[in-house]
Amino acid sequence: MYTFSSKLKTFSFVLMAVGLLGIGYGFLSAPKNIQEVEALLAADSHGGHHEAVSSAHGSEAAHEAEAPEHAKAEAGKHEVKADTEHQEHLEHVLHQLSNKPWAALYVACIFFMLLSLGTLAFYAIQQVAQAGWSPVLFRVMQGITAYLPVGSVIFFIILVLCGLHFNHLFIWLDPEVVKHDELIQTKSGFLNFPFWIVRAAIFLAGWNAYRYFSRKNCLAQDESNDNSFYKKNFNYSAGFLVFFIVTESIMSWDWIMSIDPHWFSTLFGWYVFASFFVSGITMICMVTLYLKSRGYLEHVNTSHVHDLAKFMFGISVFWTYLWFSQFMLIWYANIPEEITYFITRIQEYNLPFFGAVVMNFLFPVLILINTDFKRITWVLVMAGIVILLGHYIDFFNMIMPGTVGSSWFIGIPEIASVLFFLGLFIFVVFSALTKAPLLAKRNPFIDESKHFHY
Amino acid sequence: MSNKVIYAIYNDDDILMDAVKKTRAAHHHIEEVFTPFPVHGLDKAMGLAPTRLAICAFIYGLCGLSFGTWMMNYIMIQDWPQDIGGKPSFSYIDNMPAFVPIMFEETVFFAAHLMVITFYMRSRLWPFKEAENPDVRTTDDHFLMEVAVNNNEEELVSFFEGTGAVEVKVIEKH
């Protein structure tokens, strides 16, 4: 049995406390009205910032609602126009800045929630494939997926708050915006609050139900005399994977793609999947290495770790394949409604956009291509940290441009949100690991897994 | 000194693996093992040095990547620039995304083909070469271990009979 070391527990509480303070600071320091925004902009009074913010106007759907007023202003005197534009600009920045702490919270929350969902999908695939190598890692995977219920509840609360107009992360939730936006109107049969929140409830409930029953059966199998619980889990897992791949795709449109409601990409579901799947596998590897370094998991040898590292390598390449496929088709076709997505990201988010490719592709490929490196703990930990950070940045790139536009910054609210959810994640995961033996001892493949040698 | 070798023949890969480990533990020199299919972990059990083919593959891949880059630059930018989809090909870097699939395919093409050719050369295999298998059954369902004899014929024969071999032969090699 694993015991949660008090050091790690304290560390997780410190992370949560620091995170909460930072999140609170983020919300309190967000400007409340136009005067504060003006003061803020005056404080950083160089012209470059102003221009950059103005250029973002065109791509923002929220701005389109103000278009008629804009036209009126143009008819008037030049000075009046300049003044109105300035007011509009201030209001626009105010919206972005008041969205910022919410968006920061949202990115970190969805990242850790989906990361544990990715682990759950990996675990279900192992069950369905009747894999012989991985059963010694099942309890680690179940530990990580223990975060899913906690993460789902917090995430669902945030979605409900979005629907109650506490923020403007999803502009299509705002009836004022929809009234002036023909494109969103045509999509409102799908993108409306009741249907959207019911879908979210069904998806989250479905995933959590699979996790609950799969874990229960896996524990029951330990004390069983036959393989009936194992067989049950096989069937549940196969069913879950079918449910998962459909809901995962819809989830990616609902919770991420609809932040840019004019834009669409048909492989977006796969793209998001690749991102959180590789994050989940990386997390399995990191937790395994941690437990191993503390003297647990005596049956896990370097061959198991090697296999996890191969998955980290392979799925990183898979992610890049999807990243590039999505980019190249849109870049080549150059259709206005599609290309705006990448223009915003390349112009306003240049560093995180290309930085994500370096962190998620170039670095892991060059480091993990070597067979020997896939077995060296410190190399894996380093590569794992870079991959996890890189995929956080990837989610940042997907969510921020549509919510805060050019007012983005990785500052206190963003870092604090990550720290809070990381602390919560560590606390929940390692508490869950103490609840059951770390070896699924009666799994029919456990002997093969113990002797797995590559 | 005689050129005698022992052929110990097995009919199961697990028994073969155990036999290889025992033979190594007893410090008999294994010349070669012939199997009808690749046996996982056999190279490690025999104590063969790890293959350097992967390093070759990486270098070949880099060659392919360079070749693909050079080729597309020559074809699409220098020799015959065209305006495709409103993207005039004046500079390589601006048109690079369109060339990535070709660069990738060249990388794979070079790595794969050159790696196979390297493997054949290293294994001294070429078309119409006569097979080296000492026993045709190793192409079907038997496994053969060839071990050098150093004036310890009887000892070796009894040793291999104890490792589960279905047949032990002493052969004068030329």
From TrEMBL, chain A:
<feature type="transmembrane region" description="Helical">
    <location>
        <begin position="376"/>
        <end position="393"/>
    </location>
</feature>
<feature type="transmembrane region" description="Helical">
    <location>
        <begin position="146"/>
        <end position="173"/>
    </location>
</feature>
<keyword id="KW-0812">Transmembrane</keyword>
<feature type="transmembrane region" description="Helical">
    <location>
        <begin position="103"/>
        <end position="125"/>
    </location>
</feature>
<feature type="compositionally biased region" description="Basic and acidic residues">
    <location>
        <begin position="60"/>
        <end position="82"/>
    </location>
</feature>
<keyword id="KW-0472">Membrane</keyword>
<feature type="transmembrane region" description="Helical">
    <location>
        <begin position="268"/>
        <end position="291"/>
    </location>
</feature>
<feature type="transmembrane region" description="Helical">
    <location>
        <begin position="351"/>
        <end position="369"/>
    </location>
</feature>
<feature type="transmembrane region" description="Helical">
    <location>
        <begin position="12"/>
        <end position="30"/>
    </location>
</feature>
<feature type="region of interest" description="Disordered">
    <location>
        <begin position="49"/>
        <end position="82"/>
    </location>
</feature>
<protein>
    <submittedName>
        <fullName>Quinol:cytochrome c oxidoreductase quinone-binding subunit 2</fullName>
    </submittedName>
</protein>
<feature type="transmembrane region" description="Helical">
    <location>
        <begin position="193"/>
        <end position="213"/>
    </location>
</feature>
<feature type="transmembrane region" description="Helical">
    <location>
        <begin position="234"/>
        <end position="256"/>
    </location>
</feature>
<keyword id="KW-1133">Transmembrane helix</keyword>
<feature type="transmembrane region" description="Helical">
    <location>
        <begin position="408"/>
        <end position="433"/>
    </location>
</feature>
<feature type="transmembrane region" description="Helical">
    <location>
        <begin position="311"/>
        <end position="331"/>
    </location>
</feature>
From TrEMBL, chain B:
<feature type="transmembrane region" description="Helical">
    <location>
        <begin position="96"/>
        <end position="120"/>
    </location>
</feature>
<dbReference type="Pfam" id="PF11821">
    <property type="entry name" value="ActD"/>
</dbReference>
<feature type="transmembrane region" description="Helical">
    <location>
        <begin position="53"/>
        <end position="76"/>
    </location>
</feature>
<protein>
    <recommendedName>
        <fullName>Quinol:cytochrome c oxidoreductase membrane protein</fullName>
    </recommendedName>
</protein>
<keyword id="KW-0472">Membrane</keyword>
<keyword id="KW-1133">Transmembrane helix</keyword>
<dbReference type="InterPro" id="IPR021776">
    <property type="entry name" value="ActD"/>
</dbReference>
<keyword id="KW-0812">Transmembrane</keyword>
